[in-house]
Amino acid sequence: MGVKLTEALLLVFLYLKFSLCNGVSISLCRETERKALLDFKEGLKDPGGRLSSWIGEDCCIWRGVQCDNKTGDVVQLDLGNKRPLHDMFQYGLRSEPLDGEINSALLGLKHLQYLDLSMNFFGGIQIPAFIGSLAQLHYLDLSCAGFSGPVPHQLGNLSHLHHLDLSNPFYSSWNKLYIVGSYWLSNLSSLQYLNLNFVDLSKAPDWLESLNTFPLVSEIYLSNCNLEIPDSLAHANFTKLRVIDLSSNNLHSVVPSWLFKLTSLESLDLSANAFKELIPSAIGNLTSLRVLNLANNRVLEGGVPLSLGNLCMLNSLDLSGNKYLHGDLNELGEVFSGCIKDSLEILSWAISELTGHFPDWLGKLKSLKMLNLYVNLFYGPFLQFRLPSLKKLDISRNTLNGSVPVNLGQLYPKLEFLDFAYNNLTGVLTEAHLAGLAKLQHLGFSANEFRVDLGSQWVPPLGLNTLAMWNSKLGPGFPSWIQKLENLSVAEFSNAGISDTLPDWFWNFSKNLQLVRLSNNDIKGKLPASLEHLSGLLYVELSGNSFEGSVSQFPANLEYLLLSSNKIAGRIPETLCYLKKLAVLDLSKNQLTGEIPDCWNHSLQPRLSTFDLSNNQLSGGIPTTISSPSLAYLHLSNNNLSGELPLSLRNCRALRTLDLGQNKISGSIPTWFAKSLLNLEVLRLRDNMIVGNIPPELGNLTNLRVIDFAYNHLSGTIPYDLGNLRAMKFAHKLFYNTKVALEVYDKISDDYIDNMEILYLVSNKLLIGYMDNVNVNLKGRDVQYDKLLPLLVSIDLSRNELSGKIPEELMYLSYLQNLNLSGNHLTGRIPDKIAMLLRLESLDLSKNDLSGAIPTTMIMLSFLSHLNLSYNNLSGRIPNSGQFLALPDPSIYFGNYALCGFPLDDDCENVDKPPGVRYPKDEDEVEKIGFYLSIALGYILGFWVLWAVLLLNKKWGFAYFQFVDSLLYATRDCLWK
Predict the structure, then answer these.
(1) Rounded CA gap, 775 and 608, in Å?
(2) How far apart are CA 632 and CA 578, in angstroms?
(3) CA torsion, points 755, 760, 761, 766, in degrees to nearest 10?
(4) Nearest-CA neighbor of 420 among 647, 817, 412?
(5) H or E element in which residue 782 lies
(6) From CA 288, how far away is CA 314, in angstroms rounded?
């Protein structure tokens, strides 16, 4: 027994010796620190159970906790939620973020060197000042964690800090970080890495002087910080600075000269500012530079300096999105003949109005791996230089003509990404053109003029994961070679001329399918009963085909389902309610029957933004579970729905479009619309059974710009409060922003950058997926607005039982395009101020009881192209100028028996006296005639005298016409106010 005990003690001794010598921890964590961690945990909310391992005596084995191997002191607390921001990029989700309070019990961790709380959500609380007392900290990361308010100056006490990250890219008005005074930054003398992206520095004017005290700093990130950057700096101490990011600060000054003294700089990002100068020739001083980003400086003028060609280590150059930095690239041959031609691997010069043929010097960039020249004005032949290292080529959205080179595989043997969509390329695209591109992963050639002839025997590059071929002449047969692509994740064949039955193998050839888009073809067949085996499927769009059968069972992760304009029948399956990630559901324009399932609880589908079941044969009431706070577009029009509007719609506070037209909905228009649906832009209740008054409260909806209550049983007067609708009065931002949006819509490439970005684009680009739309009766016919819907401003209250006068307040809605009040019982006169509706295109006041003359001021409505005033009690002469001359149809005045003039047959004999000699009846009349004659003669004399003076004296003439112009503009502005 004693021998065994001796052996055991010996073994323990040897183990202890071995452990100490090899740095293995042999002790439990300190009790005081274990208790500090548990107290810290008490203040947190942990919905994902990330801290479930925080039990037992040894805190050193708890998740996120690391101790010193020898002393047992807690030295690292890593609770960062580091999975990708867009969980769609990876299989699986990020962990649930931590929430709650940051307990000061952390101060019990006296040896803590590393603290990471990033990517959590602390609900807008301030960064705790006590963190500045963790004196041993070397690493502090509080990025993207939902902190707000002023950054505490106590962080300046962390003199050992090497790494500080407070970046806050998802800030809003309630969780914005800012720094007041930057003096404390200068105390961080050990700092090597600083990231303050999206932290407001506008209240820290001396930030540059503070940062200039960092002798060891190598990386500084100050994007979106509201900076003012001084042009000069007496002495730059950033001797070890390798990376600086000053992007997106809307800087309007010149590029700071002190930047070009930082000769150790390897990466410089000045993108998304507004510098007003040439690229300085001093850029050539930065001989260590590897990455230079000057993109989206939209007023950056001039050319590219020769010194840029001397940057012999430059790998990446981005000059995209510079409005005035454009022209013919052939002129830059000398710049790119320098040593830059040997080092450059990435060249991005997109969205810059570049023109001409592709320059010859591109062929000299033999190290080039990525070339982005999309959304420009290049014309002529396809790029035909041999670039042996090129992996990505994007020349989409130009005006290239001619044919695709048949030797692409020889020109670019390493190509992984190829996109030449939206050009004018002609001929026939065959297998020969794509031969030799064995490494290709992305292929996009949408919207060209060539015909696609890829035979069924073609063996495509087997690594292809993205095919973008919409708006192409791919059909009429369904391409059978696709089934060879077992790794395909994106199949995009919209509007490809396919008129075939979808093969049975389509839903089984690749288990990696994430996006399927076959819309606007004439594809036939039935949907499979279940697609649940495609667990990665996120996006399905089959709209505009001839699919039959019922709605399939879809995988749990599905986010977008668009099946509109098919022949799908049967009931809506309840299983759709339980797709927890569903954001867009569009089953419109099918043959669905039965009631809408009452299972759309917002807690089941927290991301649902679009719900479109319009143009089916659905019956019953509107389910009360349609109540998601994220719902933006609700379309249930043209069904057989009945009952009143459910109170549950009050929860849809993000709602922008509510379209319930062409149903049998009864009851009245709720007053709570104006209190709960504050974001409402389109309200369409047309052709229902709604009674009662129009709530005056609707005038408080500041975003409302389309009202359609036609064909109901509304009574009472038109509320004058509707004249308060701001989106119809002050729509300048709406128009300008929409104009910009439409330009982007027309220019930006729809094609996908790589497989990691495709799903982000699907979620965030309006170009892909559902586009809000609404039918409006405009100019006497039904028109569907979709792309131009943001520009529509319309009121249609026709075919109701409204009475009273037309409110004069409506005449202040200066952006109104369509006003239809026909088929009511309106009385009184047409307001003279109707001329203030300068953008009015369509006006229908027919079938009312309006009286009086047609206001002559209406001749100012220069956009008016549709007018109907028939069947009222109007009288007098029809105005005989302006748009009235362009409206020759007499039927628009029928039923007004006291009206006369063009285009009616009545020539106003009963209104005007016949022409001819007429003698005055008395002396007063003679006096009046003399008075008017003297005015006329004086006017004629003055007119010619004035013209004589103006013709003889050019300065006076110029001043006079300036005065007249200003008077006209002032008059116009008064009318619009």
Answers:
(1) 23
(2) 19
(3) 160
(4) 412
(5) strand 781-785
(6) 8
Q: Are 40 and 106 in contact (CB under 8 A)?
A: yes
Q: What residue ranges of the chain have pLDDT lower than 50?
A: 1-26, 84-93, 732-767, 912-977
Quick check: 227 and 203 in contact, CB under 8 A? no
Cis preceding-peptide flag for 97 (omega within 30 of 0): no
Encode pLDDT of 27-52 as tens digits.
Answer: 588 999 999 999 999 999 998 899 99
CA–CA separation, 100 vs 78, rounded Å?
17
- Structure tokens given for 933: 């004659």
How far is residue 505's CA from residue 856's CA, in Å, rounded to a whole number? 69
Query: For residue 47, is the peptide bond before it cis, meaning its omega torsion is within 30 degrees of 0?
Result: no
Q: How far apart are alpha carbons 861 and 879 in whole angstroms?
A: 12
Coarse DSSP helix, strand, coil percentages of the chain, rounded to the nearest 5 percent = 25, 20, 55
Q: Are 394 and 415 in contact (CB under 8 A)?
A: no
Give the integer Cα–Cα distance in Å for 527 and 530.
8
Give the pair of three-digit tokens for residue 391: 């992996």
**DSSP-assigned letter for residue 503:** P
Residue the block writes with tokens 């989106």: 727
CA distance 96 to 507: 33
Give the list of residues 6+ apart from residue 271 with CB closer than 8 angstroms, or none.
247, 248, 293, 294, 295, 296, 297, 318
CB-CB neighbours of 23 under 10 Å? 9
Q: Which two tokens stand for residue 667?
A: 């009851």
- The pair of structure tokens assigned to 31 is 């009790």
Is the separation of the CB atoms in 626 and 634 below 8 Å? yes
What angle do helix axes 923-952 and 954-976 make, rounded to 10 degrees?
120
**Encoded tokens for 406:** 């048949």
Query: What are the tokens at 784?
Result: 């569907």
Residue 484 is predicted with a pLDDT of 92
Residue 740 makes CB contacts below 8 A (sequence gap 6+) with none
540 half-sphere exposure, CB direction, 13 A CA radius: 23
In the chain, count of helices (H) and strands (E)? 12, 56
DSSP-assigned states of every residue in 697-755: GGGG-TT--EEE--SSEEEEEPPGGGGG-HHHH--HHHHHHHHHHHHHHHHS--S-S-T
Q: Under DSSP, is residue 291 helix (H, G, I), strand (E, B) or coil?
A: strand
How many residues make up the chain in this entry?
977
Backbone angles phi, psi at 840, to 5 degrees: -65, 125
Measured CA to CA, the distance from residue 385 to residue 920 in angstroms comes to 92
What pLDDT is attached to residue 704? 95
Residue for token digits 């005290």?
A: 213
Q: Which amino acid is at 353?
A: E
| Cut 0.90: pTM above it | no
Q: How far, CA to CA in Å, does 558 sit from each of 576, 759, 967?
A: 10, 12, 60
Each residue's pLDDT tens digit, 280-299:
889 999 999 999 999 988 66
Look at the block and give the residue holding tokens 């998740």.
63
Nearest to 14 by CA among 26, 1, 30: 26
The residues with which 899 forms a beta bridge, in sequence order, are: 876
Quick one: which of 600, 618, 616, 596 has its CA closest to 608?
600
* Helix H or strand E segment including 818: strand 818-820
Residue of 801, 860, 808, 802 whose CA lies nearest to 829: 808
Which residue has 């007496």 as its token pair?
A: 234
Dihedral (CA of 758, 760, 766, 769) sign = positive
